[in-house]
Write a sequence for this structure.
């Protein structure tokens, strides 16, 4: 349907926009900046913070740009002494709810409220901080929520897919609190972190613990970075959204003092191998269908806690970081004659749930965790900045061989649909014995939360679905309860768009930014010589030399799941 | 002779009846918008939330003229096809009038609803959220309740007094009057039905309440009403029709301000920054008995200009008028 155009005037400038747009949307499309805090394009308009107020000719009082629809002929002023005064005072009131801890904040150099305070000359200490004694909460090993910083914009409560964050009380006593309901638990997706405009929610250890891994005495410290980081971390250094920085990243990590830098995408290639195997087997036996991916620890926790009846559907295959961590402490250690106890594995992840995943005891190998630390994209960036490593000018360097040489399939793990596409590429060739000509599975690409397709292999149709966002996943699980045959294979990622929209990614993150990060991952894949996991020579070598028995494969690459009780917050 | 729906609406329009809840929107027009809205289901809500201090006319009407109020709702039910009505009652009104009202609504598509929150529930969209079982907070408008209200259906919300007068209009007995709530330092406080055109001065005189001492009044409501000196009484009363008389010598303005701010502090929902934080800070100033004029002015400014709903916007007028005219 074609949208009707309307004409409005903003600050004297004639502007054409689509009917139905808000003033804020119309202004931003035309590069007219109106500040807004509680507004996030992923979420509903709430109009709580009152920072985006503007003047509209003929209407009494200031109006919020986020919630007011632009109407034909409207004359809008976005800056005036009156507007500035209102923004100044409301900012001062916002600061009175926000205990500043600027050197330890996910917004660090990009803090919106500080920038606004400067612009509108707000006295940030005009009113005493009234929340100094408010509680701090920790959700498992993943998320810290500091209520002394919360400005009650409610983004977190809205974005939380399991309604774990609740709005309690009213008036000045209003607070966001973790639910007391024992039937609810945080799944650590971290969307609250990336949707909080003031850094009240962050990953555990962010940023006070970032130096710990490098302070380990007499250890060999190995870094492995996740697929999606290579197209997002540049943003922290002012590079454009989605800029591909794989080799700068590897160089930066090396410069920090890590002994080796490997690529989690290489671990992903093993996940693909094992998962495609399992897919083929289960499709043949028609057993526990649909088979569901389990690379996303927030999704796994969601199933274990909220939908344990689907535990048998989860693939037993471990996530890429766990497999690669395991290979580092076994295969690689043996090869270089290093005591695995002396190896510290640090994952750089777009995710705070990965901080939880590494604590799962089922993954331990000879009493050792495959991965010792998880740093978020933000944490690594902060560490680089702190060490004055100039990311823009650093000399690119390849990740270390052999555990740093991944296929294109391993790289697209970072975007929703990528895990499934990788597995299908390999499964196709294994099932048909033919070369896959059309490598791209376009129907399961894109930023939609639910992507469905029917894939024909050997004459039979496989019904697949690539889902991102737990709210979408919930709908699919309910559909499966009604009709268990509706899918054969499901990929689920907790975060919108997959890991490129993860809770450990740089802020801000929104739909446009996620799309840029995703586009670049596909670009990397397209340029790779090896685009199918099973064709990766480094991987073939490891299967031949090391993963050559069922037991070994099982101990490194597979796991099991069970119903989880609520963890105390 | 039975009137058609259109005839009823036209009759209300001609009567020039306006809403008695405070905002004064033309009743006939409101009915027409709801009538014209296309939907399979419509709702009617009689608002008897009446939460502002010194306003007690709805309680008086439910006590003395419940059949007329119900008659007004019945007229609305006849005008809007497939409609269902709620009578939204302040908690104590619910207790007091439940039995009486239940007898009167027996067999009708009307239910009583006990208020879940406080003063803010009198605000139309908050009232809707309350019935829907949500947090008692205002919604973004538009959409307006007349088009998308309760459960997203077109919803007519009128004050109990408005329904009372609708019944009078249809009976041809409406004479441009309203119910005034008189209270404060006066001899004969209470409810008086008098012409809309009466000035405050005339109302006080006619009821034998015009003070002999120096005084000022708050007109409209006991929290949001404007402060007027004894020389400013040549005007009618707006808002919910309350007149509160204060003895100038015996009244401490700071205590009055404290009374107001405590009310707003208790009743604000906490949704928007200016109202939640602004009221908190005004209370803080008053609690210290030290009024920093610059800060107070700033807070009243953002409350009036940027509050989400009328609760916050209405804080400013009583404070400003009191400070300007009495407190100085």
């Amino acid at each position: 349907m074609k949208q009707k155009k309307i004409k409005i005037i903003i600050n004297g400038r004639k502007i054409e926009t689509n009917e139905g747009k808000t003033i804020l949307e119309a202004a931003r499309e035309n590069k007219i900046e109106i500040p807004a805090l509680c507004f996030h394009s992923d979420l509903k308009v709430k109009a709580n913070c009152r920072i985006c107020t503007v003047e509209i000719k003929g209407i009494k009082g200031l109006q919020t740009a986020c919630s007011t629809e632009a109407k034909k002929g409207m004359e809008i002023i976005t800056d005036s002494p009156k507007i500035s005064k209102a923004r100044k005072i409301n900012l001062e009131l916002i600061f009175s709810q926000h205990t500043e801890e600027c050197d330890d904040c996910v917004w660090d150099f990009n803090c919106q409220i500080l920038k606004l305070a400067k612009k509108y000359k707000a006295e940030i200490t005009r009113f005493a901080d009234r929340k100094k004694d408010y509680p701090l909460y920790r959700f498992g090993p993943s998320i810290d929520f500091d209520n002394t910083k919360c400005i009650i914009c409610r983004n977190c409560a809205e974005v939380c897919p399991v309604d774990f964050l609740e709005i309690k009380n009213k008036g000045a006593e209003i607070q966001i609190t973790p639910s007391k309901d024992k039937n609810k638990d945080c799944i650590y997706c971290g969307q609250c972190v990336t949707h909080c405009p003031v850094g009240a929610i962050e990953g555990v250890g962010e940023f006070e613990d970032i130096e710990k891994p490098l302070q380990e005495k007499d250890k060999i410290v190995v870094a492995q970075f996740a697929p999606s980081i290579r197209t997002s971390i540049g943003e922290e250094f002012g590079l454009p959204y989605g800029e591909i920085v794989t080799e700068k990243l590897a160089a930066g990590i090396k410069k920090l003092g890590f002994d080796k830098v490997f690529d989690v995408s290489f671990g992903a290639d093993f996940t693909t191998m094992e998962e495609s195997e399992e897919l083929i087997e289960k499709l043949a036996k028609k057993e526990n269908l649909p088979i569901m991916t389990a690379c996303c620890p927030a999704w796994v926790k969601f199933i274990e806690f909220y939908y344990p009846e689907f535990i048998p559907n989860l693939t037993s295959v471990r996530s890429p970081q766990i497999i690669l961590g395991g290979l580092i402490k076994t295969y690689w250690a043996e090869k270089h004659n290093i005591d695995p106890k002396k190896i510290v594995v640090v994952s750089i992840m777009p995710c705070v749930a990965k901080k939880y995943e590494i604590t799962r005891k089922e993954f331990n190998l000879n009493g050792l965790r495959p991965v010792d630390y998880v740093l978020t994209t933000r944490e690594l960036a902060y560490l680089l900045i702190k060490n004055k490593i100039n990311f823009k000018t650093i000399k690119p360097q390849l990740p270390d061989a052999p555990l740093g040489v991944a296929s294109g399939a391993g790289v697209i793990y970072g975007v929703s649909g990528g895990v499934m596409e990788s597995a299908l590429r390999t499964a196709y060739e294994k099932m048909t014995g033919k070369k896959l000509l059309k490598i791209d599975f376009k129907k399961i690409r894109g930023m939609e939360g639910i992507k469905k397709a029917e894939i024909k292999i050997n004459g039979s149709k496989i019904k697949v679905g690539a889902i991102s966002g737990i709210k979408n996943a919930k709908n699919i699980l309910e559909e499966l309860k009604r009709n268990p045959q509706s899918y054969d294979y499901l990929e689920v990622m907790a975060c919108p768009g997959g890991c490129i929209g993860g809770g450990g990614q740089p802020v801000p993150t929104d739909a446009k930014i996620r799309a840029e990060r995703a586009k670049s991952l596909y670009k990397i894949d397209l340029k790779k010589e090896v685009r199918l996991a099973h064709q990766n020579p480094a991987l073939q070598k490891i299967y031949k030399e090391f993963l050559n028995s069922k037991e070994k494969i099982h101990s490194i690459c597979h796991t099991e799941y069970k119903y989880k009780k609520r963890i105390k917050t | 002779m039975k009137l058609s729906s259109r005839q009823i609406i036209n009759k209300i329009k001609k009567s020039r009846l306006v809403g008695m809840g405070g905002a004064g929107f033309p009743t006939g027009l409101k009915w027409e918008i709801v009538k014209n809205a296309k939907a399979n289901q419509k709702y009617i809500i009689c608002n008897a939330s009446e939460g502002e201090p010194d306003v007690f006319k709805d309680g008086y009407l439910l006590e003395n003229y419940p059949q007329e109020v119900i008659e007004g709702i019945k007229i609305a039910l006849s005008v809007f096809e497939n409609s269902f009505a709620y009578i939204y009652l302040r908690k104590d009104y619910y207790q007091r009038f439940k039995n009486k009202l239940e007898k009167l609504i027996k067999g009708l598509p009307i239910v009583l609803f006990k208020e879940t929150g406080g003063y803010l529930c009198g605000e139309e969209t908050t009232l809707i959220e309350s019935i829907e079982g949500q947090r008692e907070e205002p919604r973004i408008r538009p959409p307006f309740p007349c088009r998308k209200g309760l459960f997203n259906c077109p919803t007519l919300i009128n004050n109990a007094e408005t329904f009372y007068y609708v019944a009078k209009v249809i009976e041809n007995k409406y004479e441009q009057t309203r119910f005034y709530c008189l209270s404060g330092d006066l001899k004969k406080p209470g409810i008086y039905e008098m012409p809309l055109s009466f000035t405050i001065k005339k109302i006080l005189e006619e009821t034998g309440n015009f003070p002999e001492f120096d005084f000022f009044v708050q007109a409209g409501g006991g929290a949001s009403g404007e402060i007027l000196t004894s020389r400013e009484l040549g005007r009618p009363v707006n808002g919910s029709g309350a007149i509160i008389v204060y003895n100038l010598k015996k009244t401490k303005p700071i205590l009055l301000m404290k009374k107001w701010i405590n009310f707003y502090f208790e009743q604000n929902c906490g949704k928007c920054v200016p109202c939640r934080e602004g009221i908190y800070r005004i209370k803080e100033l008053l609690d210290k008995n030290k009024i920093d004029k610059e800060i107070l002015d700033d807070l009243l400014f953002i409350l009036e200009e940027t509050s989400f709903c009328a609760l916050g916007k209405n804080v400013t007028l009583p404070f400003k008028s009191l400070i300007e005219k009495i407190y100085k």
Summary: Chain A has three domains: 5-79, 94-203, 212-557. The first helix of chain A runs from residue 23 to 29.
